[in-house]
Amino acid sequence: MKIGFIGLGIMGAPMAANLLKGGHQLCVYNRTKSKAVALIERGAEWGDSPKEIAKDADVIITMLENPTAVEEMAVGKDGFLKGLKKDTIWIDSSTVNPSFSKKMAKLANKHGVRFLDAPVSGSKVPAEKALLIFLVGGEQEDLSEIQPLLDLMGNKTIHVGENGKGAAMKIMINQLLGQSMLAFSESLSLGIAMGIDKTKAIDILLESAVTPPILNAFRSRIEDENYEPNFPLKHLQKDLQLFTDTAYEYERAVPLTNTAKEVYALAKQDKQGDLDFSSVFKFLNK
Questions:
Q1: Which of 143, 161, 179 is the last residue before a domain boundary?
Q2: Among 44, 62, 80, 229, which residue's CB has the most CB atoms within a 10 Å radius?
Q3: Catalytic site residues?
Q4: What residues are paired with 90 via a beta bridge?
Q5: Quick one: how many helices (H) and strands (E) in the chain?
């Protein structure tokens, strides 16, 4: 199977590498070509534009930073949608808002292309180890057809429902992740200010029944102040923005998320956008 892969960032590059390991032909594109060098050395082809990647692809996968980037690659000047063969499947694994996924599904359908929104739960290390969880919106028949590809990149696939439902589930998960990290960071920061030893405070908080287990994975980052990005703070802040935008569309009040979004925005403004999102503790504990 010939696969076109667009977007070779922290997540996209290891996902593409796992497809290569699986024996598939891969043609890749990224706005910064240097990020494709390692994949090209391992056998991937380079496409000079999204449109060029599209012409021979059986499946195209996008893993991009935001809805604007996805739309540019799909329907911009050299967008891939016009070049895809009919019945090609487009898998968008980017984290975007549900209404945007529905919009892309309609555009794809007009070009005779089948669309799946398939964002992932997981960060850099799970992507490298093919341990991602795919949250999929779209037709079950289309998902079944490309399931072997997802199995090369992840270890679990959940069909959430129609187009847009995968995207919806992803922003719900990231909203909880961002809120959890922020609440933990506030509590720990105050504990330190009150004179409790940092390591002891972390021990007790992480052993508490009220702390989400996922935060154990970030212990060393906060304890050692090592914020090398697995999930950049700027991306988490963007995901919270997508959540609040979607809440507005559905006339739902989300006061806690609006507040959390602005705290992360302040941390990004403080030049922490490219650090791991757990660095919000660093911002609060100044």
A1: 161
A2: 80
A3: 170
A4: 60, 115
A5: 13, 9
Closest CA to 18 of 114, 120, 115, 126: 126
Q: 18-57: per-residue pLDDT in tens?
A: 999 999 999 999 999 999 999 999 999 999 999 999 988 9
Q: What is the pTM of this model?
A: 0.95
What total number of domains does the chain contain?
2
Specify the residue for token string 């977007």: 7
CA distance 78 to 50: 6
Euclidean distance between CA atoms 254 and 151, whole angstroms: 35
pLDDT category, 1, cuts 50, 70, 90? confident
> Each residue of 84-106: pLDDT tens digit?
999 999 999 999 999 999 999 99
**Radius of gyration, CA atoms only, the chain:** 20
Domain at 175, CATH number: 1.10.1040.10
- 219: amino acid identity, one letter: R
Helix axes 233-249, 255-267, angle to 10 degrees: 150
| Tokens 């070049």 found at | 83
Q: Are residues 151 and 34 in the same domain?
A: yes
